[in-house]
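Throughout our pipeline, every protein is held as a single compact record rather than as scattered files. This encoding replaces a full spatial description with a residue-level series of whole-number codes. The remainder of this section carries one protein's record, kept here as part of the documentation.
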Amino acid sequence: MNRIVLVFVLLLALASCRSSKTVGPIFTKAPKVQFLIDSVKNAHFDFDLFSSKVAGKYKDDAQTFSFKGTIKIKKDSLIWMSISPGLGLELARVLFDTDTLHFMNRFDKTYFKSSYADLSQKIQSPLSFTRIQNLLMGNSISAFQERKYHSALVNQLFKISSVSDKQLKKIRKSRRKSNQEVFTAFVNPLNSKITKQSLQNHFLDRTLLISYDDFELHDKQHFSESIDVTIVKAKGLSINLAYSKISLSKKLKFSFKVPKSYEVIR
């Protein structure tokens, strides 16, 4: 009898241990799309000044290399990056202002600049300061304008898409591929943060995929300290970024002076 009681007590103890674990809610459907979009916008990472050390890895079909650097951002104004191969020597410096990209190659001693309009035409995709800033901050790269969006529940994540599943099937089956970009985002229901977002162009057979991980609290806001950016095409490439030593209060300088000896690339 004592043995039976002991086993019974052990079973109760194990059951109580299992039940004490925090279990998130189980969702059966996604909220209405406008409610979901509003929750994602409200969860956007907000700041005035941002600075961080970054460790990264670049990979394409021809090469793979690691790098280190620093990122500084003045919200809606400037994005400054310094990149080095990890040996303490600066390899490149990049500055994004609201309408122009500036790139200084320290190794080749060259300087290049281009408007977002020209870059957008070259890559056949709308590019802007806001889109780059949102990508780096883990915010939506879509402004949620000019089209109808759709919501769904996928593996306990909320999904937002610029086309329905039915429309997407038609696009894929069509012989004349549409040049429109299909936006998709997967959202964590518990904090409304985007865990993955993509832009897919079936006409160009190209997909931009951005994944976010390692969320930590900064200024009481969830922020992804790990970003994977992948461009899938005939020749794909990927960039992995890991943030560290994040500051939202440090006074920042955005030094970008091009030496006169540098060759200007047109």
User: Anything to note?
Assistant: The radius of gyration is 23 Å. Residues 1-22 have pLDDT under 50 and may be disordered. Residues 104 and 111 are 5 Å apart (CA to CA).
